[in-house]
Each structure stands twice: as structure tokens, then as C-alpha cells.
Amino acid sequence: MRPNEKLEAAIRWHSPLEQPFQISGLAWFHQERKYRRLPTLPAGAVPGAVDHLANHTAGGQIRFQTDSTSLSVRVKLKGKANMVHMPATGQCGVDCYVGAPDVFGPLRYGNTTKYNVTLTEYECALFTGWGNAMRNIVLNLPLYQGVEEISVGLDEHAAVLAPPGYVSGKKVVIYGTSITQGGCASRPGMAYTNILSRRIPLEFINLGFSGSGKGEPEVAEIVSQINDPACLVVDYEGNCVSTELFRETLPEFIRIYRAAHPLTPILVVSRIRYAREDLTPHLVEMRMERKHFEQTLVNELREKGDLNLYFFDGSHSLGGEDYYECTVDGSHPNDLGFLRMADAIEPVLKTLLL
SGNH hydrolase-type esterase domain: from which residue to which, for each copy (predicted)? Predict the structure, then answer.
């Protein structure tokens, strides 16, 4: 249970800003070179909370290949771990997945940074003493904290190569709530967008904004600026404030996005079940009312000719009779919940994408 120890050996520190390292999951990274999920200076006004949460690096990945026998990271965070129901390893940590070279997947979990959570800067060894063989590496960045700087430490004479390519340059864009952002996964790789990114050979863009993904038109305009979308997943029902407001924002969000991307598949997803629904029937009524609205809206727009618009019922994404075991606090998934969410939506996405 102790923190990861530093590697006391000759290490060469690399900046992932430099090739052949690749940063994925941050749509504006190649223009701005910042670990941020929205543009620093968007064309229009953005809600303050959304702008703040855009600094959280949920879905950001560092990808590369190396034959190094060890791997360490140095991380400078924008703030300390401070969440009461989410582990610091998920909020502020980095985890490592490892696969065979020159192919996309499968990737196996390697390790997670464990550090003194009172600090905003840490150095951790993710593996040491491994055999000298080329490996495909994916580092998942923190879900609920910003990253000022990060460096990758490898053996002094290790080779570093570009990662295996995606099947295309298109991106899966997922817009939503704290659940989309990854609350409350125990480590970054267990956010359901990151799970899906290991199964589908495309770049995933996580635009979940905790408590603040509310379908604002200003945000829809920014989301529509992401080039080459493979599809857009819209999953912000949990933050919609009220059914009445949801009836206003969702059609407008779709309209704005569709104006920029007339043929891109859009998947509207209803929220997962609350863990206490059997005890609080009013939550079921509210969820069913909103789900019915989403289904009806999608059907109406399809009847008007938008055949690339789809609805996915999230009601059963957490599984069957034991669905109530899949959250941390009744609303936010634990790792089991995120795994089941990924399992549920994966075949739908593959049908739309591949």
C-alpha cells in the first residue's frame, strides 16, 4: 500500500510534447500544445465551470512504443487531490497499459501512480526490471485534475517509437456529465471512454463536465468545431437541471451540431439507473419521463430525414438485478459500473463506426 518508489538508476527524461510521442484524447492539443480539453480562447463565451473543468485531462493519453526495461513519470498537477468519494489514483493519478508492438490492442493493465496526495508534484516508477522487448504503451492522464507538466522516464539508451496508428483520423466525441468525465473511477483507465478506447481503434475525445455539461448552445458550437468526427455521443441527461430545460437544450444542441456535420452519426444516450431507484420511485418517474422525451425527439427527427441520429437506452447499462452494486454513491459508477457501461455501448458504437 506504500507509494511507488522512485527508480534509483540512470533515467532519460522525455517530454511527450516531442515526437515520436503522441498525445490523444485532447482535441485542441496539436494547435495549442496544452493538456486541456477545450480551446484556451474559444470563439464564444463558455460557462466558467466548463472552462475550469476543461483543464482536467480526462481521456487524455500519452502513446508510444519503447523497449525500455523501466518506465517512470514525473507529474506537476494544477492542484491537490481533494475528493471525498473518488480515489486520488483516479482523480490525480496516471495509469499504464501495455501491449504488443506495432498492433492496436489488446492492452493489459500495468500499474498506477501512487504518491503522497498532499503534494502537487510527484515522481513514480510504473515498472522496473522488465525484459528488454519492444512494447506498445498507453498512459492515461488524470480524470479530475489538471496537468501542468508531465515527463516520461525511460532507460538511458532505450528506443522510443511512434505508437500503432488508428484505423483512421476520425474521432469519437463523447459529451456529457461527471460520469462521462470519469467520476468515480479508481484509476484513469477505468473511465468508460478509456475502456472503449482500448477496444475500438479510434481516438476518443472525452468532453464530460462534472455538474456542468448541460447542453449549452455555446458549448455545442465548440464541440462542433472538432474536425473529422466519427460520431458524437450525447449523454448529458444527468445534468439537464429539469425536464423542461432539457426539452429546450437537447433539440438545439443537435441542431447546432448537425449544421456543422450533416452526416455524422449522433447517438443520444439516456442516463444509467440510480442505485436507489427501488427505494425512491420519484427518481424512476423522472428518469423515464426524460428517456421518453429523448426517444420521441430522435424518432421525430429521423422521420424528418435525419437517418444518422440514433437513441441508446442507458437504463440497463449497469446490468441486471445487481445494478445497485455498480456505483460509489448511488449515481456515479465504480469500476464495475464503468466496465458494464462500456460493455453495453461497445457493440452499438462498433455498428456505427466500423
Answer: 170-350
Distance separating alpha carbons of residues 194 and 342, to the nearest angstrom: 9
**Which of 45-49, 104-108, 207-211 tops mean pLDDT?**
207-211
What digits encode the pLDDT tens for the residues 92-109? 999 999 999 998 889 999
Predicted confidence band at 240 (pLDDT cuts at 50, 70, 90)? very high
What ranges make up the beta strands (E) of the chain?
11-14, 22-24, 61-66, 71-77, 95-99, 107-112, 121-127, 135-140, 147-155, 160-161, 171-176, 203-208, 229-235, 266-269, 309-312
Q: Where are the alpha helices (DSSP H) in 304-334?
A: none
Q: How many beta carbons lie within 10 A of that of residue 45, not counting itself?
A: 10
Q: How far lies 106's CA from each of 109, 173, 272, in Å? A: 10, 22, 27
Torsion, Cα of 282, 285, 290, 295 (10° steps): 160
Distance CA 177, CA 83 (A): 17
Helix (H) or strand (E) holding 347: helix 335-353
Distance (Å, whole) CA 84 – CA 101: 39
- To which H or E segment does residue 88 belong? helix 88-91
Scanning the structure block, which residue is given the C-alpha cell 471512454?
Answer: 193
Q: Report whether pLDDT(286) > 80.
A: yes
| Model-wide pTM > 0.85 | yes
Q: What is the mean predicted confidence (pLDDT) over 206-229? A: 97
